[in-house]
From TrEMBL:
Listed name of the protein: N-acetylglucosamine-6-phosphate deacetylase
Pfam families: Amidohydro_1 (PF01979)
Entry EC no(s): 3.5.1.25
Known pathway: Amino-sugar metabolism; N-acetylneuraminate degradation; D-fructose 6-phosphate from N-acetylneuraminate: step 4/5
GO MF terms, alphabetically ordered: metal ion binding; N-acetylglucosamine-6-phosphate deacetylase activity
Cofactor: a divalent metal cation
Organism (species): Streptomyces fructofermentans
GO annotation (BP), single: N-acetylglucosamine catabolic process
């Protein structure tokens, strides 16, 4: 590949808005501000050009689990999501025994050091048995700060986030511990009251793990965690926009109250993402995936998703009718900021990694570039947008 390449003619989504017939210059692995006069050009007329997607909550894909798969299997799962536009991914684990999770953290931290993943998210075991979802109840435990510390130490500086039911004994102290170590404290799988949630936010929690899911419903006398998480400007709310986890009105409610700069679309994907229906294991629990919906064999609880972020993007624009700029923020800029990566990824600006996605007029992925290399190369194309 030539040192410089001009991607021209697309509708480019920048932090300042949409530019029709815009250009993005790729120089090596980075986005550049200018190009030589003889630099080759790729015509993307009729397409959208957006930043690479950033998924901060993802358990696997391509038939591979980030909680239990081998290194090769984890890399296959990462590759599956990259082909769908996710150029930056945090690998999430599910509840397991502490020694097993610490061992898994060691394996994943090596992949983070190599740049294959952006960090590790521990979802469980420090969650409420009342809101366990697809987590093994017998392995759940209260968030003892010493045990939380064991996991983040095992991650060797690569722990990005820990999801906690902060109302449990040790929850608030664990939030403070995470903040002290530069790890995001996320409130999720929780049975907290409104007041308990406010206390956790004041202690330093900054994320709502898949808002609405695995937490008490919003009540007129007992508003619970949802009201506290939506109203506080310090909180970024995760949303799983697959048409199964959320009613469209709930998605609109979240965007209306949190605003476009406080929403992060996630996949919460498990092994079946990009792979197909069938039987899978999520941690120690068996999952049946039918027509793209994952549920526990025992009890029928939703067990993660088979979502990829390109589908979340398309649904947000074509079904939910959200502005493209807000959707780009939700899949790129907002999670990148939260993870402390916005100086490198999350927007198409000079100096940042050349991570980008080409979408056609129907918002289908036609090209994916990561650090200047086409992972999915756009075909010869004709104008499609009017």
């Amino acid at each position: 590949m030539a040192t410089s390449n001009v991607l021209a003619g697309a509708r480019v989504v920048l932090p300042t808005g949409v530019v029709d017939g815009g250009r993005v210059i790729v120089d090596g692995t980075r986005i550049a501000g200018s190009a030589p006069a003889d630099a080759p050009s790729t015509d993307l007329s009729g397409h959208w050009l957006v930043p690479g997607f950033v998924d901060m909550h993802n358990h696997g894909g391509g038939g591979a689990s980030f909680t239990s798969g081998s290194v090769d299997e984890v890399l296959r799962g990462i590759g599956t999501h990259r082909a769908h536009g996710t150029t930056t991914l945090v690998a999430s684990t599910v509840t397991g025994d502490m020694d097993g999770l610490a061992q898994r953290a060691g394996l994943l931290s090596e992949l983070a050091e190599q740049g294959d993943i952006a960090g590790i998210h521990f979802e469980g075991p420090f969650i409420s048995p009342c809101r366990k979802g697809a987590h093994s109840e017998e392995l759940l435990r209260d968030p003892d700060p010493a045990e939380v510390r064991k996991l983040i130490d095992a991650a060797r500086g690569r722990a990005s986030m820990v999801t906690l039911a902060t109302e449990l004994p040790g929850g608030i102290d664990s939030v403070r511990l995470l903040v002290e170590h530069g790890v995001i404290a996320a409130i999720g799988h929780t049975d907290a009251t409104y007041e308990q949630t406010v206390e956790a936010i004041d202690a330093g929690a900054t994320v709502a793990t898949h808002l609405f899911n695995a937490m008490p419903v919003l009540g007129h006398r007992t508003p619970g965690p949802i009201a506290a998480l939506l109203e506080d400007e310090r909180i970024t709310v995760e949303l799983i926009n697959d048409g199964t986890h959320l009613h469209p009105a709930s998605l609109q409610l979240a965007f209306h109250h949190a605003g476009g700069d406080r929403v992060a679309f996630i996949t919460d994907a498990m092994d079946a993402a990009g792979f197909g229906d069938g039987r899978y294991m999520l941690g120690p629990l068996e999952v049946e995936v039918s027509e793209g919906v994952a549920r526990l064999v025992d009890g029928g609880s939703i067990a993660g998703s088979t979502l990829t972020l390109d589908r979340a993007f398309k649904r947000a624009v074509t079904v939910d009718r959200l502005p493209v700029e807000d959707v780009v923020a939700a899949v790129s800029a907002n999670p990148a900021r939260l993870l402390g990566l916005y100086d490198r990824v999350g927007s198409l600006e000079p100096g940042k990694d050349a991570d980008l996605v080409v979408l056609d007029a129907a918002f289908e992925v036609k090209g994916v570039m990561r650090r200047g290399e086409w992972l999915v190369e756009p075909p010869a194309i004709a104008p499609q947008l009017r």
